[in-house]
């Protein structure tokens, strides 16, 4: 098969009721982006700390920040236009964050993104920010909070500095129950690890070296964080404490059927999976980049480079995940040493994977089926 060549930019939706801390979290991301160029779509610039970042240009309602980030103030009707502007290769953005306040319900926004015919965007997850101190009161005033939590991929229980330890635990449990399989992390002043939302930028042109982390660096960095003895990565302030990350490497191909069964039954709290999968006889020509956020799943094949070592490398990030069980589950996905002699059976086994491969060139019917596959279960039910 021909892999798609169009680069796709993850679009993260940031939602939460009035005053929950969305803008604070956004400012934190803009300050701790480690070279990643972020496009931000907000309703108004007011609270974004643009002053602290030197504005290098403003055209209409778009502000370009000196640090390579772009900021747009839009209303819902303009969203598509701005997404188009922000996803132009010339903008060279790595991730787009949309602050959902004032727009339609977050699930509407998620639907719009999933249904968008902009081939440059990739849904990057719905993050719901919750004010810990106001949780019960907000729920009473806005019963729809339950629905928002049910479709979220990541819930940030913010302002935990304003509640005691016991109350924090009670809230975590209450939020976790409402948000089902989404990961719940606690935060103060929106200080979450940016890697929960986007990968560090990989810039081929030597620009912004601070952001140039290779996959190996990423694995190494996570090891450092576990041992807390390496610094210099800008991750010193215990951001990782709220979740764990587990890595997996195999030099034996993954059996596509077993691997998909593993993904289908991925445990609650496993918020992100990223990496590359070798499906061996399932597709000898390509390695498959895997991107999972919450219940959203996508594979993007790319041809193996000449002489490239054929490996499966995955990083899994979540809250309360069982590393040993994940390793065991993945180890059981290894294909038999001998390639299956039955070619049609091997091809059929790949169908489950190909369902999650974006194919802009696909014909109408098939594309509709693919759009369905993209919809996270909870959003589809909502
Ligand atoms: N104590 C405490 N205050 C916080 C925390 N996070 C944000 N705040 C404060 O809460 C207020 C609201 O935060 P914002 O980030 O503006 O919230 P928002 O969700 O963007 O608000 P709207 O745009 O009005 O919906 C601000 O005064 C923040 O400084 C936190 O973790 N702890």
Question: Can you walk me through this structure?
Answer:
This protein has helices at 22-31, 79-87, 106-115, 135-141, 145-151, 165-179, 215-227, 256-264, 323-331, 343-349, 351-354, 364-374, 377-381; strands at residues 9-16, 38-42, 55-59, 62-65, 70-73, 95-99, 121-131, 154-158, 183-186, 244-250, 270-277, 286-293, 296-303, 312-318. It contains 13 helices and 14 strands. The protein has 382 residues and is an alpha/beta fold. The chain is globular. A 9-stranded mixed beta sheet has the order 3-4-5-2-6-1-7-8-9, sandwiched between helices. A 5-stranded antiparallel beta sheet has the order 10-14-11-12-13, sandwiched between helices. The two termini are 35 Å apart. It has 2 domains: 9-196, Rossmann fold, CATH 3.40.50; 243-357, CobW-like, C-terminal domain (Hypothetical Protein Yjia, Chain: A,domain 2), CATH 3.30.1220. Guanosine-5'-triphosphate is lined by residues 16, 18-24, 47, 101, 158-159, 161-162, 188-190.
């Amino acid at each position: 098969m021909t892999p798609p060549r169009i680069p796709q930019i993850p679009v993260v939706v940031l939602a939460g009721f009035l005053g929950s801390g969305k803008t604070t979290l956004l400012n934190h991301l803009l300050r701790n982006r480690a070279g990643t160029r972020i496009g931000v779509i907000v309703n108004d610039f007011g609270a974004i700390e643009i002053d602290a970042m030197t504005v290098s240009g403003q055209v209409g309602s778009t502000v370009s920040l000196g640090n390579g980030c772009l900021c747009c103030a839009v209303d819902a009707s303009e969203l598509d236009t701005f997404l188009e502007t922000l996803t132009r290769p010339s903008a060279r953005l790595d991730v787009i964050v949309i602050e959902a306040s004032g727009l339609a319900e977050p699930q509407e926004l998620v639907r719009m993104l999933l249904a968008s015919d902009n081939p440059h965007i990739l849904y990057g997850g719905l993050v719901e920010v919750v004010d810990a101190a106001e949780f019960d009161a907000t729920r009473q005033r806005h019963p729809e909070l339950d629905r928002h939590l049910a479709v979220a991929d990541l819930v940030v229980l913010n302002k935990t500095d304003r509640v005691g330890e016991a109350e924090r635990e009670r809230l975590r449990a209450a939020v976790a129950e409402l948000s089902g399989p989404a990961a719940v992390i606690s935060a103060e002043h929106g200080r979450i690890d940016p890697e929960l939302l986007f990968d560090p930028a990989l810039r081929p042109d030597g620009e912004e070296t601070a952001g140039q982390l290779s996959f190996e660096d990423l694995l190494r960095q996570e090891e450092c964080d576990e041992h807390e003895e390496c610094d210099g990565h800008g991750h010193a302030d215990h951001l990782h404490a709220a979740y764990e990350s587990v890595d997996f490497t195999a030099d034996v191909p993954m059996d596509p059927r077993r691997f998909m069964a593993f993904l289908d039954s991925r445990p609650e709290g496993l918020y992100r999976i990223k990496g590359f999968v070798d499906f061996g006889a399932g597709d000898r020509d390509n390695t498959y980049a895997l991107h999972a956020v919450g219940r959203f799943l996508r594979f993007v094949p790319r041809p193996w480079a000449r002489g490239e070592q054929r490996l499966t490398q995955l990083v899994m990030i979540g809250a309360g995940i069982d590393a040993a069980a994940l390793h065991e589950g993945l180890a059981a996905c290894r294909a038999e040493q001998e390639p299956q002699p039955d070619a049609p059976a091997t091809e059929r086994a790949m169908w489950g994977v190909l369902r999650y491969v974006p194919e802009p060139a696909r014909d109408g019917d098939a594309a509709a089926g693919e759009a369905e596959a993209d919809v996270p279960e909870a959003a589809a039910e909502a």
